[in-house]
Amino acid sequence: MKKIFTAILILTLVLSSCTEEVKKNTNPLIEMKDGVETIWYPGKKQVKYRREYDSQKRRHGKWVLYNPEGKVMSSSFYDHGKKTGVWLVNYANGQLRYTGEYKNDERFGEWIFYSAIGIKQIALTYGEDGKLIKKDVFQKENISSKKDSISSKETK
Description:
Elements: H1 2-19, E1 30-33, E2 36-40, E3 47-52, E4 61-66, E5 72-79, E6 82-90, E7 96-103, E8 106-114, E9 120-126, E10 132-137, H2 143-155
């Protein structure tokens, strides 16, 4: 009886391993076509991420994150796995959070950081080697007066 049970178990394992295919993505919210991965929000009415890969599955090309309303939350670029080009990241309210440039996987040039209401807070400058060469911190403005001026402009 033990031998029969063992034989059946081994036969089952052999057959299942022979017929096992490479599992493909079964998540209906993720699509991959020609090196471009698209990830959808539930309901599949709005794209959440659009990401590109090269043939070796390294990040390549433009990567974009969208909010549920379809507005760009972040945008970045890669060149065969290395960060490159202009990057931007927004706050949830759509206001620009920071922007800067990468060159050969290193920060390069001026990077500017903003508050959630659009006030420029910090500017960092990087050299060709990716090392920080300058940092400017801006005076904090009266945030409540800035909010009031934004509100009054919107109501006019």
